[in-house]
Every structure is written in C-alpha cells, then in structure tokens.
Design a protein that fits this description.
Distance between the termini: 42 Å
CATH class: Mainly Alpha
CATH architecture: Orthogonal Bundle
Largest sheet: 2 strands, antiparallel
Radius of gyration: 23 Å
Structural class: mainly alpha
Shape: globular
Number of helices: 13
Number of domains: 1
Strand order of the largest sheet: 1-2
Order of helices and strands: HEEHHHHHHHHHHHH
Helix content: over 70%
Strand content: under 5%
C-alpha cells in the first residue's frame, strides 16, 4: 500500500477521538440549548428558542459579556507587557543556560491552576506577603484589598496566561533580524529608536498572535475568577458553572456556553487575520 493510501488510515484514530471527545459533547450542548425549564425546575425536552431569547434579553448577560471582555483585555495587556521583554531576552540570548531560563519562564504551566490561585491568596491576602511588607515598611496602615475583587482576579489571570504568551511570542519572533537592528544602530539610531522603528514593527505579528491567545485563555478561565474573586467577580465562565451546578439550569448554561464559544471563535479568527495582515 502506498504512502498516500496509508495516510487516511492513520487519520482514522485521531478523527474518531475528536468525534467522541469533542464533537459528540458539543452536539449534546447544542441540543440542550433548545430545551426549557419547567415550573418545578426540571429540564423539559423541546425545540424552542424561548431560553435563548430570555437569556439574551436579560441585561445581566450583556453585563457578563462586558465584564469578561474588559477583564480579558486588561489581563492580556498586563501579561503582554511582562512577557514581551522576557521573550525578547530569551530569543536573543546566547547564554548556555538559555534552555534552563526558558523552562523557568514557562514553569508555572506545570503547576495546577488551583495551587497557583491559593498561592496568590497567600501573597495578596490581608495578612499576605504584599500587605505585611508594606505595613512593616510603614507605607500603609490598613491592608490593601487585593483579593476577592477585580484587582486580584486581574493579577492572577495575567500571571496564568503569561507563560503561554511567552511561548507564542518566541514562536512568532522568527522575522526578527539582528542585522537590521545593527544597521539601524550603525546609521546613528538610538537604542530606543531602533526598537521603535525596527524591532517592534517586525514583532507585531507575534504580538497579535500572543494577544489573541492570551485573550481567549482569559475569556475561558473559571478557576481564577471564582477563587480570587470570592464570588464578587461575575464573568461568563463563572455564570455558566453556576447555572449548570448550583441552579441546575442546563438550558441557560448551554446557551451561555455556545455564546461564549462563538465569541472565542470570532476572537481567534480576528487575531489570526490581524497576524497575517501584519506579516505582509
């Protein structure tokens, strides 16, 4: 059998796995979105758009969308500002410890998200490292409210997506050419001007790719808003969980899940289009 005929056979196991793990649950989610909830709170099978209409006519859904978009945008911007210099250093360094430094940069990916969140609770809490240090230095008298609010969630999300953005930036730095920077410096450009006119424009596709990835990861995050928010931060991911578990309202949870999935797909498409346009 030739290689061209063997290739479809090799794709069969992966295709079956995707059908079972992803497509089939997605179809079930889509089916639940058309169901309704009866007077007793039980789900009633139906083919109706009543649940979707009620969900999107509720102003709280619009508020959740704005909260999610704003939180994702701020977290992505903070993570990008932190990840860019780290990625640029790792890309340029000739140190023999480059591999070790790259592992250290992405090491948080190997730690459970729950563990990282509890670590931030210990750092940002009223008696945490930050408040204790500031009080010992006499800079504050009362603890700063850094957890169970938007501030703590933003910090936690920025830290959680930063390793992924570092990898995305490193993958997109292929267009950077050090000879162009050296040419700019030889023509009298200052280091800042060289960065602004040469390095930054060449790295814009990588920035668009990393920002899109970070934004999507922030939009779909549940653990960080739930634990660091302390029930005071409401986004789409937390509302989906509450509707599916606490309220056992699966139709509404399915509608919100499909709505969030569509938003994420649109954001991914826009990010890829922007990255491709910047590469031209």
């Amino acid at each position: 059998m030739t290689a061209s005929r063997r290739l479809p056979l090799l794709l069969i196991p992966a295709t079956l796995l995707l059908l079972v793990v992803y497509v089939w649950p997605s179809l079930g989610l889509f089916r639940n979105a058309f169901n309704e909830v009866g007077p007793t709170g039980a789900m009633v099978e139906a083919w109706s758009l009543a649940t979707a209409r009620a969900t999107f006519h509720d102003s709280f859904t619009f508020e959740l969308t704005l909260n999610s978009l704003w939180l994702s945008a701020v977290s992505t911007l903070i993570a990008l500002c932190l990840a860019y210099p780290v990625s640029l250093f790792l890309f340029r360094t000739d140190s023999r410890f480059r591999g070790l430094l790259a592992v250290v940069a992405i090491l948080p990916m190997l730690v459970s998200g729950v563990v990282r969140v509890f670590g931030w609770l210990a750092i940002l809490g009223d008696r945490g490292l930050v408040n204790t240090t500031l009080q010992s230095l006499g800079l504050i008298t009362t603890p700063l409210k850094l957890v169970f609010n938007w501030t703590g969630v933003t910090i936690g999300l920025a830290e959680s997506i930063m390793p992924y953005m570092i990898l995305a930036l490193l993958a997109g730095f292929g267009r950077l050419d050090r000879t162009l920077e050296e040419a700019a410096r030889s023509l009298g450009a200052s280091p800042f001007r060289t960065f602004r006119r040469v390095t930054l424009p060449l790295s814009l596709p990588a920035i668009a790719l990393a920002a899109g990835l970070g934004f999507v990861l922030s939009m779909s995050a549940y653990i960080t808003p739930k634990l660091l928010g302390g029930g005071r931060v409401f986004v789409l991911a937390t509302e989906i969980f509450e509707q599916a578990t606490t309220n056992t309202n699966w139709p509404v949870a399915a509608v919100l899940a499909i709505y969030t999935l569509i938003l994420l797909l649109v954001l991914l498409v826009v990010s890829n289009l922007v990255a491709r346009r910047l590469q031209r």
